[in-house]
Amino acid sequence: MSWLEWGLQLLLLAMLGAAIPFALRLERALREIRRDRAAMDGSAQGLGEAARMAEAAMVRLRASAELAGRQVAEKLATAEPLRDDLRYLIERAETLADRLEGLVRNGRPLVQEAPRAPEPASLQSQAERDLLRAITLGARGAR
Questions:
Q1: pLDDT digits (tens, 9 = 90+) for 35-63
Q2: Which residues cross the membrane (predicted)?
Q3: Most exposed: 2, 6, 10, 66, by fewest CB within 10 Å?
Q4: Exposure b/e, 96-109, CB count within 10 A at least 16 = b
Q5: Are 119 and 129 in contact (CB under 8 A)?
Q6: Domain range spanning residue 84?
């Protein structure tokens, strides 16, 4: 072997010795990448499972919303006739209240002019006295 061959072999040996730390660093980096890949695969599976669970929850939520919508529609359907009945009753009550108010206005001068009848002592409550007064006024107004 010549000196050139020995020199090239030493150079090759030095280069291989210098490459060993880089190879070790590369091996560690590959190990971390594999570990991260396994974690990423696990995360991807977890993400897929979470997506499936979210889809199932969304389906349940949609079904629940549709059921609630149907229930509200049913309640609304039963409430509309009641609303119409109440509106009718309120209109009738307003007209009756207006008529009653007119009768009261017309009857006030008659009450002030008419002599007061003695109230029986047996009537205890104000409501009974008011009823008797209204009956008396009604009989006078009918004459």
A1: 888 888 888 888 889 999 999 999 999 99
A2: 6-26
A3: 2
A4: eeeeeeeeeeeeee
A5: yes
A6: 19-142
Q: Which two tokens stand for residue 20?
A: 């060993």
- Render pLDDT for 19-39 as a digit per residue (tens, 0 to 9): 999 999 999 999 998 888 888
Residues sharing a CB contact under 8 Å with residue 123, sequence separation 6 or more, in sequence order: 129, 132
Predicted pLDDT of residue 127: 83
* Alpha carbon distance, N-terminus to C-terminus of the chain: 155
Residue 13 has pLDDT above 60, yes or no: yes
- Tell me how many degrees the CA angle 9-26-36 measures, rounded to the nearest 5: 165
In total, the chain counts a number of residues equal to: 143
